[in-house]
């Protein structure tokens, strides 16, 4: 059995990061409430993906600390690896395994957690039903549209009911009509799940629809940090 769903606050304290001599994140302090959806917004190159990679455990910070709830997950030069963090991730490029079927792709996080076969199968169907793809279990990703592939990636991210969901511009490869409809669907799904989520985008409207709070990064620092009001999240 998987552990019951526990929402997790995230704390970044004085987090900095540099690529060699090039400092890209400067002393970031952020408290993200358990169960909230925070959009990270900002122009290209401002450090959004770098911050997400630190949250995912793909790279350690140069300075500062990151906590998931009570747990220290990263400090200067050290980082708990992604598989030990109980997170789900969705990237711009779907990152599905082409040789696996849809069901095998979605089952992967459950396999990693040693969930027994029967429970795994039920959860895969449940996750794919949530994203409207239950009938595509045996397809390969190459037999799906871009939007469908991104739904599979979303199902894979949520199937193990992780404590934290991380998104890096998941809709930016899709055409604008599809982007709008999937954005609204994802907003509904995130509300249902109640999981703490960080959503990177450079699209303000997407951020307003999906998030409770928008953090604007500018050149590696927090420039604006604001709550989203219910009236702001409308596609024009
Ligand atoms: N592997 C790397 N080596 C050196 N510099 C890098 C590397 N990856 C990113 N950078 C630099 O770090 C800065 C932040 O990059 P990052 O990818 O976090 O930006 P971003 O806000 O996600 O941008 P985008 O909206 O274009 O995805 C940029 O100046 C970028 O050029
Ligand atoms: Mg990026």
UniProtKB/TrEMBL annotation:
Residue ranges annotated for the ABC transporter domain, each copy included: 10-236
UniProtKB keywords: ATP-binding, Cell membrane, Hydrolase, Ion transport, Iron, Iron transport, Membrane, Nucleotide-binding, Transport
One GO CC term, this protein: membrane
InterPro entries named in the record: AAA+_ATPase, ABC_SmlMolc_Importer, ABC_transporter-like_ATP-bd, ABC_transporter-like_CS, ABC_transpr_FbpC, P-loop_NTPase
Highest taxon of source: Bacteria
GO biological process: quaternary ammonium group transport
E.C. number(s) listed in UniProt: 3.6.1.15, 3.6.1.3
Gene Ontology molecular function: ABC-type ferric iron transporter activity; ATP binding; ATP hydrolysis activity
Pfam families, sorted: ABC_tran
CDD domains according to UniProt: ABC_Carb_Solutes_like
PANTHER family the record matches: SPERMIDINE/PUTRESCINE IMPORT ATP-BINDING PROTEIN POTA, SPERMIDINE_PUTRESCINE IMPORT ATP-BINDING PROTEIN POTA
UniProt name for this protein: ATP-binding component of an ABC superfamily glycerol-3-phosphate transporter
Organism, scientific name: Trabulsiella guamensis ATCC 49490
